[in-house]
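Structure in, sequence out. Go:
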């Protein structure tokens, strides 16, 4: 009975951490055009700044396993959460380009450590429960994204200066950390380190294909996070205080569809859901890219969210159920490739937008989503 009660508390704490991660990242998204305007920089320079987040995350990810083994999930999550809160509180008060770059590097480092640690905690807690819990945990990340982007957008709507809207978010993160800390895992109850040599799984053709598709999908999610508000403000002349609603609407659609994802997959099958979801996401991005009517563009972001919501869980399940390679090797490799798309994609989009335009860059995303759609049967064969 005690073990069951402890596991339920650990599940609640894990959901809390996923919520914090989504909250912290999404709260920054509506403020990116404000930062660009405040620093008076072009799309290429903004891409470099956003790459600092990617660089910080990817620099720290290789060391996360050793840190988990040494410190435990609880200590590492608390350190990352406090670090994220401090970075958020200071970001919109920075007035020089170099300081902003360094701050975003730190922001990315804390975010990268937190991403790996919370997923490791989720695996251990799910295993102890004996049931499938991962989709629910990631659903709380989506709910955190809605809360972060929505709260910031609302504060901007009501005229709160951009320099102050992240302070309440930082305080909320600290409060959530305090509530969840007692049930986070320590080295005593999470002794398994992440599996080494995960990149060797990319020599497996099916795993490599799934990893490439995850890179594309996470790149698209990164575009929604970091470039949706910029796209609406620069390409559609939407006021800055309204542009942030694009990502908020996208996040609501993702979270809502994930609530029904398991039911839909059970009824219609992985391949059908992946293919139709890819087509829906493609249609949504096409609407965003080519519609000059503001309501239609916002609707496009909702449709993209509906399409993307359940593709990543399907691909992760496929990677973890390959008949001739261990899930403990395949899943970390696929996750690393996916996060590489999420973290480096926004910078690549910035460079592309500088060379061409943001609309042209989004058009390329349509082609990439079609690739995902029509390789569904290859990636899920024999699943």
């Amino acid at each position: 009975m005690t073990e069951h009660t402890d596991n339920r508390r650990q599940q609640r704490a894990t959901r809390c951490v996923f919520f914090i991660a989504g909250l912290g990242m999404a709260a920054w998204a509506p403020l990116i055009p404000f930062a660009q305007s405040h620093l008076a920089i072009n799309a290429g320079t903004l891409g470099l700044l956003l790459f600092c987040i990617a660089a910080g995350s990817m620099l720290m990810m290789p060391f996360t396993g050793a840190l988990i083994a040494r410190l435990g999930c609880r200590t590492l999550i608390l350190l990352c959460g406090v670090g994220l809160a401090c970075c958020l509180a200071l970001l919109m008060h920075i007035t020089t380009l170099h300081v902003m770059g360094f701050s975003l590097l730190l922001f990315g480092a804390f975010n990268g450590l937190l991403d790996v640690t919370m997923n490791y905690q989720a695996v251990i807690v799910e295993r102890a429960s004996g049931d499938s819990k991962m989709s629910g945990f990631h659903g709380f990340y989506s709910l955190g994204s809605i809360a972060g982007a929505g709260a910031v957008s609302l504060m901007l709507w009501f005229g709160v200066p951009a320099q102050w809207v992240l302070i309440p978010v930082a305080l909320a993160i600290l409060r959530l950390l305090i509530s969840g800390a007692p049930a986070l895992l320590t080295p005593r109850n999470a002794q398994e380190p992440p599996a080494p040599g995960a990149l060797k799984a990319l020599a497996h053709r099916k795993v490599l294909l799934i990893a490439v598709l995850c890179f594309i999908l996470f790149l698209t999610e990164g575009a929604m996070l970091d470039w949706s508000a910029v796209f609406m403000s620069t390409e559609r002349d939407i006021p800055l205080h309204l542009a942030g609603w694009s990502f908020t609407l996208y996040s609501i659609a993702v979270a809502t569809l994930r609530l029904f994802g398991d039911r839909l997959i059970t009824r219609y099958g992985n391949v059908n859901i992946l293919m139709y979801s890819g087509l829906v996401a493609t249609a949504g991005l096409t609407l965003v890219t080519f519609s000059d009517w503001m309501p239609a563009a916002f609707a496009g972001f909702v449709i993209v969210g509906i399409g993307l919501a359940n593709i990543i869980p399907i691909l992760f399940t496929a990677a973890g159920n390959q008949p001739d390679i261990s899930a403990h090797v395949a899943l970390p490799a696929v996750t690393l490739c996916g996060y590489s798309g999420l973290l480096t994609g926004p910078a690549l989009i910035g460079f592309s937008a500088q060379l061409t335009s943001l609309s042209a860059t989004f058009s390329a995303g349509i082609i990439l989503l079609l690739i995902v759609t029509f390789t569904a049967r290859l990636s899920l064969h024999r699943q």
